[in-house]
Design a protein that fits this description.
alpha/beta, six-stranded parallel sheet, globular
Length: about 230
């Protein structure tokens, strides 16, 4: 039951969108997913209330430092993947969540402010390893990438991450209308109307590749069985 935590101390980095895409794509593949919504904005919880019932996805709202460990323990028997959506700020919950995580994913847009927010998380990961011997696997996912243009700022961010030897996912999250619209209509990319959303096929492919790469990086424990292929998801 791996725990994947999404963290960036700057808001607006595409963190919650990445959480939603990973959760719904994992469910589409038959995995049972529990999202821990620790973001005060509660966007995941609002989306969940709009969505049709889905036995493969659960959302726990109002997660905080004192409840997160119990929240995870209580749902272990019914969960394949836990996904934690942290606040876009420096909080005491950040270190607690990292300590409970199997992988920390840091969403970063192609701008200096987002890179600094990501750097704060990287510095904490390094501190925990250096002072407490706690080593947590982590990587960066580039978000809201323009599918047509590679900007100077994005190249600068990639260069900075390479200099620091930070692991970056091969699959960036591209800017797509469907990634915004799914929050308004609930469900997933696979329940949206192709006639109403532009480039929905490309959005689905991007989300699938993102989820596939994360499953490769954070596989289920060997003792767990593979998800049933006949399960249906939202």
């Amino acid at each position: 039951m791996p725990v994947i935590t999404f963290a960036n101390t700057k808001g607006g980095a595409g963190k919650t969108t990445a959480v939603l895409l990973l959760a719904t794509e994992l469910a589409q593949q038959g995995y049972r997913v529990t999202i821990l919504d620790a973001d005060p904005q509660q966007w995941i919880t609002r989306w969940y209330k709009l969505s049709p019932p889905n036995s493969l996805i659960g959302v726990i709202p109002y997660v905080n430092t004192s409840t997160i460990e119990r929240n995870i323990a209580d749902s272990r028997e019914t969960t394949d993947y836990f996904i934690v959506d942290l606040p876009g700020a420096r909080t005491s919950l950040l270190a607690t969540a990292i300590g409970l995580s199997d992988h920390v994913l840091i969403p970063i847009q192609g701008c200096a402010m987002d890179a600094q927010g990501g750097a704060n998380v990287l510095e904490l990961l390094q501190y925990l390893e250096r002072r407490a011997g706690i080593r947590v696997a982590h990587s960066v996912v580039l978000t809201r990438v323009n599918p047509m243009v590679t900007t100077r700022a994005l190249l600068a961010v990639k260069g900075l991450l390479a200099q620091r030897q930070v692991n970056v996912l091969n699959t960036p999250i591209v800017e797509r209308a469907a990634f915004r619209d799914v929050f308004d209509c609930g469900g997933s990319l696979h329940t949206m109307d192709e006639t109403q959303v532009s480039n929905l096929d490309k959005a689905r492919e991007n989300a699938r590749m993102f989820a596939d790469e994360m499953v490769m990086r954070v596989p289920l424990p060997v003792r767990q069985t593979k998800p049933r292929r006949n399960r249906r998801a939202a």
